[in-house]
Amino acid sequence: MSEKKSSFLIPVIGTAVILAGGIAAYMYLKGGADSSSPLSSAKLVPGTALMAAYIDTNPESWNKLQQFGTPQAQKILGKELENFNQQMLNDSKISYEADIKPWVGGVMIAVLPPDAKKVSQTNLRSPEEPNILLVVGIKDKIAALKFANKLKDQKNVKVQESDYKGQKIIETTGQGQPTYTTVLNNDHLLFTSNKQAVEKAIDTYKGEPSFATKEGANDILRKGVDVKNSLAQVYVPDYANMVQKLTTFNPQSKQLPPQTLAQIKQVKSLTAGVGVDDGGLRVKAIVNLDPQLNKFQYQTSAAKIVGQFPTETLALVSGQGISKSWQTLVEQSKDYPELNQGLQQARTQLKAVQIDLDKDIFGWMNGEFGLGAIQSNQGLLANVGFGGALVLDTSDRKTAEATLTKLDNLAKQQSLNVAQKNIGGKNVTEWQIPQQGALMSHGWLDDDTVFLAIGGPLAETLAARKGAALDQSDTFKTVTGSLQTPNGGYFYLDMDKTTTIIERLAAQSQPLPSEATAILASIRGIGVTVNSPSKSMTQMEMLLSLKPSQGK
Fold first, then answer.
1. Please, which residues bridge with residue 540 across strands?
2. What is the per-residue pLDDT across 443-476, written as a single tens digit (0 to 9) for each?
3. Alpha-carbon distance 245 to 248, whole Å?
4. DSSP label at 321?
């Protein structure tokens, strides 16, 4: 936060608490419970809101983060917090920890459509921004009153009071555009830079439809997303409407074609949450779908393919049934002329070399698959430090072998040397560049598992693996072991191995800043998975696995 914004925002909030008429007798202030919650806050947000996010200010949840990170990373973050607090102290002698934190409850940030009049007058090159409304819970009225009293002598802002339907609105001007605040029911402070937004919020308080009563919103607000020590939740009750409105607000955006709208309408609502647990930062999202419009063919993956990758794997994407996903894409391309044209061009080009894109390339990819980046410092991979490998299970080995033979013949036509090699008792075919080594290789790991790898060293690693498999490594288990199962596969990233590659490549141009290195050193890895218990729901879970504070 900039110095100007911080020195401006604090007096604004304090002035609202003082003048809005919500804090009166001491005994009244002493009573009353904290009403701050996503649902209670949403009852003050106008029903026209497109989405809302709720930030939980429970210190126990945020303090949980202190158990992670290297000493260097904690020092960096501590310095940033100290700088933030010093900005808060600027010209006002205000401390966030001492003066604001005790009384601020949960904060809801709502996105409202811009004023219709402004949108109609918007310059074609100047898109109108949506209005942002903050609903701040007041969990300790006495602490809020003390804070307000401390700000009575502030002179760096100009305050003007007005009345709207019996509620006081405070217009504050100083640096930048005016802001408007009000206190409703003595337990919520509303803050926005748009007067019409705060007036609509007062209308909502008086009985007009709220975000909480919006179709589909009440259910997702009550349920939220189940994460431990929740830090924030996001609620989008009407996803298609939100996308359409946000597109309309920006005159530079092209009108969404009917096909795209049809795709968007598959999603009814979205809820997401982030929390902190013993593994690190965990993000979960729930997407409610229209089962009649959902064309995606979800398949559960047993994740056995992960066992074909070595522990040197730094990143992996795994899943099931590329062939069915391809069929779905082909079917949907009928509604997208540009996509359909691209597919037809690809078919035509491959047909010229006797390859059928649908049958020879994707038709036999009906089992599990894994696409991984694997560390290697040999051969053609010596400069970059890693190579790529695709491992596929298939029930149609005959077609797969025929396709690989066609590809080998194409390689020969490009003056590559196609040679056979035995690695660990497995026959491997290499495409070799004269005097440089193997460019690509492929072979069978078992009767129904084939691999294609960039670089000769990876063929050695995959076919004659001597160490433990990736799924037996401590890092993979830690990063993915707590993710939901069954699932459709994994995205996995080993941050230590990835950082080694990043630093190696960065050293060739400009070394990474020490701050970035310290932050990366605090992350063990990233794990993501998706599952779909029914055609009406898809769930995503991501873990940013963090190292304990005593870790090095």
1. 285, 530
2. 999 999 999 999 778 999 999 888 899 999 999 9
3. 5
4. -
**Cβ-Cβ contacts under 8 Å for 545 (sequence gap 6 or more):** 279, 280, 478, 479, 523, 524, 525, 526, 527
Cα distance between residue 374 and residue 457, in whole Å = 10
Q: Which residue has the tokens 């949506």?
A: 130
DSSP 479-502: HHTTS-SSBS-EEEEEHHHHHHHH
- CA 36 – CA 108 distance, rounded (Å): 9
CA 254 to chain centre: 25
CA distance 509 to 436: 25
Given a contact cutoff of 8 angstroms between Cβ atoms, the answer to whether 539 and 529 are in contact is no
Confidence of residue 67 (pLDDT cuts 50, 70, 90): confident
Packing angle, helices 322-333 and 337-351, rounded to 10: 120
Given a contact cutoff of 8 angstroms between Cβ atoms, the answer to whether 503 and 314 are in contact is no
Give the model confidence (pLDDT) of 317-349 as tens digits: 999 999 999 998 998 888 888 889 999 999 999
- Residue 388, classed as helix, strand or coil, is strand
Distance CA 180, CA 204 (A): 16
Report the distance separating Cα 340 and Cα 332, nearest Å. 9
SS3 label, residue 75? helix
Rounded to an integer, what distance in angstroms lies between the CA atom of residue 347 and that of residue 353?
A: 10
Give me the phi and psi of 324, to 5 degrees please: -70, -35
